[in-house]
């Protein structure tokens, strides 16, 4: 059974762009996508080599080949170590179906950030 955990203030999230919390032995990052304003909660561990995933960048997924890349594959979290990308809504890696990161429901209520984990 899951429960909502208060992990910090929405003001801190706005100021820093990231909140980190430890829930049940897992480090979870809460990020705000600056382009869309949406908030996402993601396990802060890349399944590739354990990088602190939430220190990566949120951006449009690119398609194509060098010198011909175009945006349009949705918003992804780009790993800071090796560049693996994970869809913010599902945690799925578009390039390798075996790679997935845990995502959690998140909401802001009364100025507090809550994660359902």
Question: Can you give a write-up of this model?
Answer:
The chain is mainly β. The chain has one domain (8-107): Rieske [2Fe-2S] iron-sulphur domain (Rieske Iron-sulfur Protein, 3-layer Sandwich). Helix content is 6%, strand content 46%. The chain contains one helix and ten strands, in the order E-H-E-E-E-E-E-E-E-E-E. It has one helix spanning 10-16; strands at 4-9, 18-23, 26-32, 39-43, 57-63, 70-78, 85-87, 103-104, 106-109, 112-116. The protein has a four-stranded antiparallel sheet with strand order 2-3-4-8. The chain has a three-stranded antiparallel sheet with strand order 1-10-9. It is globular and about 45 Å long. The mean pLDDT is 89.
Structure summarized in a few sentences:
The protein has 117 residues and is mainly beta.
Distinctive features:
three-stranded antiparallel β-sheet; 117 residues; globular; 46% strand; mainly beta; Rieske Iron-sulfur Protein; single chain
Look at the structure and give the mean pLDDT: 89
Shape: globular
Instruction: Please give the count of helices.
Output: 1
CATH homology-level superfamily: Rieske [2Fe-2S] iron-sulphur domain
Q: Architecture, CATH level 2? A: 3-layer Sandwich
Uncertain segments of ≥5 residues (pLDDT<50)? none
CATH class: Mainly Beta
CATH topology: Rieske Iron-sulfur Protein
Kindly state the number of beta strands.
Answer: 10
Portion of residues in beta strands equals over 45%
Distance between the termini: 9 Å
Strand-pairing-aware structural class: mainly beta
What is the total number of structural domains?
A: 1
């Amino acid at each position: 059974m899951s429960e909502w955990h208060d992990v910090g203030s929405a003001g801190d999230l706005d100021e820093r762009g990231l909140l980190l919390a430890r829930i049940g032995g897992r480090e979870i990052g809460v990020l705000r996508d600056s382009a869309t304003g949406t908030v996402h909660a993601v396990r802060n561990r890349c399944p590739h080599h354990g990088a602190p995933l939430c220190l990566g960048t949120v951006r449009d997924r690119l398609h194509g080949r060098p010198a011909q890349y175009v945006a349009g594959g949705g918003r992804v979290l780009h790993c800071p170590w090796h560049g693996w990308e994970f869809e913010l809504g599902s945690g799925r890696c578009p390039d390798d179906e075996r790679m997935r990161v845990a995502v959690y429901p998140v909401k802001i209520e009364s100025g507090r950030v809550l994660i359902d984990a």
